[in-house]
Every structure is written in structure tokens, then in C-alpha cells.
Amino acid sequence: MNRIYFIQIFFVSFFMFIFSIQIQGENLVLIEAESFDNKGGWKLDQQFMDQMGSPVLLAHGLGTPVEDATTKIQLPKVGKWHVYARTWNWCSPWTVKDAPGLFKIKINNQKLLNDLGKGNAWGWEYAGSINLNKIENTISLHDLTGFEGRCDAILFSQKEEFKIPNKGKVLSQFRKQCLSLPDKPKSAGNYDLVVVGGGIGGLSTAIIAARQGQKVALINDRPILGGNNSSELQVVVSGKIKQEPYPRLGSVVEEIGNIYKNPEEIVKILQREANLLYFKNMHVFAVNKTGKDIHSVTAKHIESSEESVFYAPLFVDCTGNGSLGFLAGADFRVGREMQSEANESLAPLKPDNMTLGSTVFWDSKEKENKTSFPLCDWAIQFTEESYEKEFSGHGFWETGFTHDQIKESEYLRDYLFRAIYGNWAFLKNKSANKDEFQNRELSHIGYILGKRESRRLLGDVIFRQSDIEGDYVKYNDAIVTGTYSIDQHLPDPKNSVFFPGNEFKSLMKHNFNDIGVKRKYLRTDQVNPPYRIPYRCLYSKDINNLFMAGRNISVTHVALCSTRVQGTTGMMGELVGYASTLCKKYNCSPRDIYKYHIEELTTLLK
Fold first, then answer.
1. How many CA atoms lie within 13 A of 460 on its CB side?
2. For the chain, N or C: smaller number of CB within 10 Å?
């Protein structure tokens, strides 16, 4: 390790030591908002914890204040307490005058003095002080607006002037000390296979591997399963399944169907698998690795903050973002390759950072009487020329084409909030069509960001446009059938006129003229001549024991525009489930399956 690294370790350790002394010398009580017993109308949101440090509670009321979140708190002594909350004004990146997400803290139903949610970045804001004459008290988060207020944590101190850690490892250690969490995580057990990510790809991997006799841990960072196909996002499964010459692939995708229609049934399917343990609300944030092998992963429960370690000889990254591979140091790509690199006619002449955008769905409903909606001066402001006359917004409400889809994900989700609320405010109050909307109200806005593209982990083969268009036959391990078109999402030119570089609408650009898409259950219609993805795209070229299944596999940006759909990614997961079983049988790596056992794998699939 170099000198700079030692210096960094020294300063982090020094500051942790100083804060440890402060904690021991002060009466401090920390409560994480996500751990509240009764969350009321507030939503548990863990999407951005790698960037800002924690899950949060979100007052997602569509403009109507949500019900209070409440919990009990035990204080070490009675007396005067000063109260702080970690929060921010989520509109501050756009330097707007108003803070839309204001809330207050109540203690025993008594409101503290200050409104919260005004800061320019995630940080501690002073809520006020209160004299308490009992040890057990009730604390509440009281939303004032219904417009996406958010709270990370609340701190009680008997000293008003107190510098509270706010970022990085120092904040993390401060949380642990205040919550009396152990320095070392507990063991969650040893497994044959650990699957990280509970979308279609992760579910298919875990179910097949368990049915093949492996002991499997499936780790999901949300309270419900399905990823983009969950009840939170409801993106229907696309792409034909169970195709020759491997008709066995797709059987699990068919079995689980569209998860959002019956999420309880998916949990029952997992519970029936004797070899499978499902861990919900667990966010993987660290990897223990020796050389090029992962030994274990560490996950944090998004409500209790308890940490657990999962051990296995094999791991699968089904996170979509390639998060596990990133933590392990696997090579990856982001953005578009240049045309000449892979001889792709649909690629740009020069490489760039453009990706497919992210989406928030929204809808409205007709009411019997007139409804009102505020002007929302903090939202995007529209005119008769720029507004969108729509009663709902689905896949075309998309943004972030040139932004970092991971580091800036909170910014992108919030930008879509500003677009949706601003457009609706104009429709209701100012547009020439406002009479058509006088009885309508917003009935749904998603708060989970639907992503199409971020990191793509690199394997021994990088699949490309020409492989989709018929050249896949050169691969002797071409197995997973894809049928979806090369569906590029680009900024809508009309939207670009009014919001250049900050578009929130997209257009689909398919690689054929007549898409002929018929909406069927599971979208089994064939919209592209079938092609097959090589097995070698489904494991990391750098990490010996890491598989991947989903939109994070080894493909170019152009190829991803087709391979990303969930029927196809589910079959990837099934293939990985079978391949990992052979890895256990022969005590070998994913790469060794291709080198020495590919015929046995293909025979198993048939």
C-alpha cells in the first residue's frame, strides 16, 4: 500500500477516535428514520444510500401531506434536549427559491420550532429544543407539503453546539457507535451460491440453482421482489422465451409471470424451495476478496442497520447496476462505444457517455368534482409551447441520457418529479386545455427510479450489433435467445427545443421500420429475427467466481438496447443457474465451464 493510502487511513481513524470521545462525553441518542415502527404515509427509500449514506423516509404524497411516521424513543435522562435531523432541500440543485419538501419533528405530539428540509445538501438541520420529563417518548415526522420531503436520521443531544459527522466513513462509524452496533457483522451462513438482486434475472438464477441441488442465498435490497417488473415499477416482461434449440430456458420466467400482478405468489414459490433462503431489505455494500476471488459479501439491513456476511464459492451479480462487480473491482463500461470499435452502424462516430435514460411512471384519474393543484413554483415551469398534454406518463418520461445513472440517480429521480409536478400544475392552472383537467387528480407517481442502463460488466466476449444481426453463429456457446429489437431511447427532439441537455421525454428508435408489436402476456411476440447470446458474456473476465445476469452483462451499448428486456434477462439467469451447478460438480470456475464442460451444459439445457 502506498503512503497516500496510509495517510488517508490515519486521518479517518483519528477523526473516528475524536468522535468516539465526544460520544462518550455527551448524552447523544440517534434514531434512523428508516427504523420507525410506524412509517405512516412515508415511504422507505434505499435507492441512494451508497451516495448519501443511508436509506431515508420519503413523504411521497403527490402534493397532499402524508400521515405522520411515529416511533418510541428511550432517552437516558430527563431534561432539555436539542434535536437535529439529517435532511435537505431536494430542489436546491436547481437554485429555486422555495423548498417543497418541508416537514417538522413532533415529540409527544408537540411540534418543534423549525421547519426542516431547507439545506443545500444532505446535512444536519436544527429542529429545535424541548424539555422532557420522562424517559420514554414518542417522536413523529410531520409532513407539511406532500412534495417529497425526506429524512435520514434524528439526533438528540443535551448540548446545542455540536459538530455532527456528516459524510463517508466518519458518519458511518458515528452511526454505529450511537446505535451500539457491533464493529464486525454477523455471519449469515455459508452457501453454494449467493445471488445479489431480486429482479427477473436474480429470481431465475436462484430458483434454477436451488432446484439443481445448490444451497442458495438470494439477497434483495427492497421489501418486494421483481426489480423493474415489481409492483413498484410494473414494466411488463418482453422477449420470447423457451426457444429452440434450448426450449428449457424460459420455464422459470413463464412460471413466475408478470410479478407485479401477484407479488405474494413469488414469495410462496421461493418458500417452497428447500435449498433457497431469501433475504429481503438487505443492501450489499462490501466485498471480501483475495486476488481475483470473492470470498464473501457484506450486506446491511435497510431498516435495522444490522450487517451480515454471506460466504460462498460462487456469486452472481443481478443488481442491474453491476454493483457487486464494481465492489469487487471487475472491469466495466459505461456509455456508447465508437462505431469503428465493434463495426456497429448504430453506434456514434466517437465514443461518449450517453446511456438509455431512467423513468418514473405517473398516472391520473377522473373525479366527480373539480380538484385543485398548486402552481409549484419550485418545479419546471412550462408554457403553451413546451407543456405535455397527457393524462399519464409511462416509458417515454425518461431522463439522464448524458448523466451518471448511478452517482446522479437521486438528482435524476428528483428532476422527473419536477417535470411531472410542473407539467401537471400548468395543465390544471394555466393551459388552454385546463377545462379537460379540472376534475382530474394525480393518482400515482413512482418514486423508485426505473433504470435501463448503467454499468456493463465485461466478460470473455462482448456481444455486439452484428451478433444480433446474424453473426452469432460464430460462437459455439451462443445459448440465450433474444428476439427484441435494438430499441434505442434518445432525447425527444421536441423536448430538446425547450430543455436542451435536460430532456425528460424520449423517442424509441428501432432497428427496423415496422415494429409490429402486439401487446400480449409476457410479450411473446417476435419483433426481431432470433439471435443467441454467448455464455461467455455471463461471467466476469476479471473476477474468477463472478457470474452476471441482467442488463449488466458483457455487451456493447447498441446490443444492450435489445438484450436488456426481462424475458431475455430471465433466461440468462436460468443459464447461470445451470452453469453454477456444474461449477459445484467439478469445483471449477465459470470460465472452466466454457473451456471443459460446455457440451455438458448445452446437453443439460436441451
1. 18
2. N
